[in-house]
Amino acid sequence: xxxxxxxxxxxxxxxxxxxxxxxxxxxxxxxxxxxxxxxxxxxxxxxxxxxxxxxxxxxxxxxxxxxxxxxxxxxxxxxxxxxxxxxxxxxxxxxxxxxxxxxxxxxxxxxxxxxxxxxxxxxxxxxxxxxxxxxxxxxxxxxxxxxxxxxxxxxxxxxxxx
Length: 162
Ligand SMILES: [Zn+2]
Description:
- By secondary structure, the protein is mostly beta strands.
- 0% of the residues lie in helices and 41% in strands.
- The protein is built from no helices and 14 strands.
- The strands form 3 sheets. Strands 2-1-11-10-7-8 form a 6-stranded antiparallel β-sheet, with no helix packed on it. Strands 4-3-5-6-9 form a 5-stranded mixed β-sheet, with no helix packed on it. It has a 3-stranded antiparallel β-sheet with strand order 13-12-14, with no helix packed on it.
- The protein is globular, with a radius of gyration of 15 Å.
- Zinc ion binds at residues 129, 131, 133, 144, 146-147, 149.
């Protein structure tokens, strides 16, 4: 299980939010960040166009036992940058640690706390393509490596235990 606390300022006020593995998010196993309140858990004002509607997502990698952030605009013609600890994140997800700073457009999100508890590794989410191929979560937004279909709108599933 993980628990992550984030802090950010949206140009009107500051926010602090703690999200744990048990919390229901818009998409199972993902903490989505962007301007679209229907898609995102961490929501920036709709008029703040330096942030994409669905811009980045935090997920737990049960194998590496770490939290990562990935860029959800990576497959666009012009990906909207995500900067984590001063490094640009486009194709590869970046690990998060306490003190990490995630920059989206003109905003910064500070990772103020991360905790892991031992119970955590039973639930590992993955994605399933429309043809039934089961893939690790970090494939979301990509194309299925087996059949090539887009995984953009694919189903989130609990991975079978290894
Ligand atoms: Zn497939």
